[in-house]
TrEMBL record:
<comment type="subunit">
    <text>Homodimer.</text>
</comment>
<keyword id="KW-0119">Carbohydrate metabolism</keyword>
<keyword id="KW-0378">Hydrolase</keyword>
<feature type="binding site">
    <location>
        <position position="59"/>
    </location>
    <ligand>
        <name>Mg(2+)</name>
    </ligand>
</feature>
<feature type="binding site">
    <location>
        <position position="125"/>
    </location>
    <ligand>
        <name>Mg(2+)</name>
    </ligand>
</feature>
<dbReference type="GO" id="GO:0016811">
    <property type="term" value="F:hydrolase activity, acting on carbon-nitrogen (but not peptide) bonds, in linear amides"/>
</dbReference>
<keyword id="KW-0479">Metal-binding</keyword>
<comment type="function">
    <text>Probably catalyzes the deacetylation of acetylated carbohydrates an important step in the degradation of oligosaccharides.</text>
</comment>
<comment type="similarity">
    <text>Belongs to the YdjC deacetylase family.</text>
</comment>
<dbReference type="Pfam" id="PF04794">
    <property type="entry name" value="YdjC"/>
</dbReference>
<dbReference type="InterPro" id="IPR011330">
    <property type="entry name" value="Glyco_hydro/deAcase_b/a-brl"/>
</dbReference>
<dbReference type="InterPro" id="IPR006879">
    <property type="entry name" value="YdjC-like"/>
</dbReference>
<dbReference type="GO" id="GO:0000272">
    <property type="term" value="P:polysaccharide catabolic process"/>
</dbReference>
<dbReference type="GO" id="GO:0046872">
    <property type="term" value="F:metal ion binding"/>
</dbReference>
<dbReference type="GO" id="GO:0019213">
    <property type="term" value="F:deacetylase activity"/>
</dbReference>
<dbReference type="InterPro" id="IPR022948">
    <property type="entry name" value="COD_ChbG_bac"/>
</dbReference>
<protein>
    <recommendedName>
        <fullName>Carbohydrate deacetylase</fullName>
        <ecNumber>3.5.1.-</ecNumber>
    </recommendedName>
</protein>
Length: 237
């Protein structure tokens, strides 16, 4: 069984950053994806240099913080922050400019290249890259930068490399229990492909509380991710 354990939200806050690198160093986290538009982004880039074995991708967002680009009126609220929330799938009319989304996401990706770094892969905050109106954008950017993308699409776009064969998002909220890993193993132990687990380990700080409704569960995730013992035939990649 081949397993990727990816920690989302690198760059969200210093507490999140430290929680992720410690869950990598002390636990089973193998990769992370970074919000490149947040106050703790520079701190996350600094930590990258100290943990070279940690794969780091881009956590593309339209729903956390403020955009990097300045000419994006369809993406922002009157305060200049992203106007979408995690409830974006319920919108009957999204009103987004595809050109503005693409320019913003390219700017988020470029934060790596401007520092002479190459991201490992692409995914997104609240899985928005799998939303039907956004798929053409993620396809173009993935192909332009030759980067694999987190799966989770109802119909994966042609010509896009996927980061794994399966994504399991069950280790979240009420699903944050040690038995999750036992059940995952029983479900996939005979599977030949690669499974990705999405997780959100963190130390809690005030910035996290300001930007996320998912707070205490992150510390519980950290505790489990740093003490769990996986079956011998599980290969972390």
């Amino acid at each position: 069984m081949k397993l990727i354990v990816n920690a989302d939200d690198f760059g969200l806050s210093r507490g999140v950053n430290y929680g992720i690198v410690d869950a990598h160093e002390l636990g089973i986290v193998t990769s992370t994806t970074m919000l490149t538009n947040m106050p703790a982004t520079n701190h996350a880039f600094q930590l990258m240099e100290k943990y070279p074995k940690l794969k780091v991708g881009v956590h593309l967002t339209l729903s956390c913080g403020a955009p990097i680009t300045t000419d994006c009126p369809t993406l922002i609220n009157p305060q200049g922050e992203f106007r979408l929330t995690s409830q974006y799938p319920l919108l009957k009319e999204h009103g987004l400019s595809e050109e503005e989304v693409e320019a913003e996401w390219e700017a988020q990706i470029q934060q790596f290249y401007k520092r002479g770094m190459t991201p490992s892969h692409l995914d997104s905050h609240h899985h928005i890259h799998t939303w039907e109106p956004i798929i053409p954008v993620i396809k173009r950017l993935a192909q332009k930068y030759d980067l694999p993308v987190r799966t989770g699409f109802r119909n994966p776009p042609n010509g896009v490399r996927l980061w794994s064969d399966v994504i399991d998002a069950g280790f979240y909220g009420e699903g944050v229990k040690e038995k999750y890993f036992i059940e995952l193993y029983e479900k996939f132990k005979a599977y030949d492909g690669t499974i990705e687990i999405m997780c959100h380990p963190a130390y809690i700080d005030e910035v996290l509380r300001q930007h996320s409704s998912y707070v205490e569960g992150r510390l519980k995730e950290f505790e489990i991710l740093t003490r769990i013992k996986l079956a011998e035939d599980v290969t972390l990649i």
